[in-house]
Amino acid sequence: xxxxxxxxxxxxxxxxxxxxxxxxxxxxxxxxxxxxxxxxxxxxxxxxxxxxxxxxxxxxxxxxxxxxxxxxxxxxxxxxxxxxxxxxxxxxxxxxxxxxxxxxxxxxxxxxxxxxxxxxxxxxxxxxxxxxxxxxxxxxxxxxxxxxxxxxxxxxxxxxxxxxxxxxxxxxxxxxxxxxxxxxxxxxxxxxxxxxxxxxxxxxxxxxxxxxxxxxxxxxxxxxxxxxxxxxxxxxxxxxxxxxxxxxxxxxxxxxxxxxxxxxxxxxxxxxxxxxxxxxxxxxxxxxxxxxxxxxxxxxxxxxxxxxxxxxxxxxxxxxx
Length: 321
Known about the structure:
Strand order of the largest sheet: 5-4-1-8-9-10-11-12-13-14
Mean pLDDT: 91
CATH class: Alpha Beta
Low-confidence stretches: 309-321
Structural class: alpha/beta
Radius of gyration: 19 Å
Number of domains: 1
Shape: globular
Distance between the termini: 28 Å
Strand content: 15-25%
CATH architecture: 3-Layer(aba) Sandwich
CATH superfamily: Ribokinase
């Protein structure tokens, strides 16, 4: 069972617009409400492809009630820890004319020490039957920056490998705890290392404690840096669509292959195939299963030459997710 943890759950609200025009009155053609947060999205993808999963998350207030109701109807196995503060909203403005996506992410409610401890205890219990732990998304106010580090150390002590997908101080602190895989995008990686070259930055995170680093490069694919080698994987073709859940789908793919003990090229291939399929899904957490099955064998994976010289020319790997 792949266990996902989402301390900063959200009610995802997606507005589909013909075009986003700043300063104008906007009338969406469709509105969607769904339980979200990165770990919830990861669990949703895993459930869609038939993998056993459990989503641990938080919920509070009226929007938290909507999260509970939607998850109950989705079929995704979950445990929600109650919070006194109201669950945040994340708002996506999807322009269908040009495919641009604009996000508005609320910070989330303050989580008390008792509420955080309740989530930690839920993780501790669920780890007994977990094959991989996924720590995803931002940390809510009131939770210390090393909160993911605490969960990673707990999982490591239980013999469960971990995937860390976060940013900023939470990423820096979490890396020190030694996750099996860290998955930042290029911008998150640059922010935490100060290095513009994604390969050099990934190598620096391994020095700091990560077992392996897999970097999302948007349309350019993904880069993996591990103790046994370095690889770049690219989708077979560029796709237009909703990119908001692509990184979460990639994490689902990483967790699947990590649970199966696969080699790193296979990890990358699965991650890129699922990420591409998520771009074609209407909402974060959705994947186009037909595309995923077609794309998986078509993903191009190449080893990074051992003599690769980091520097300004290294940006050929691509831009941000």
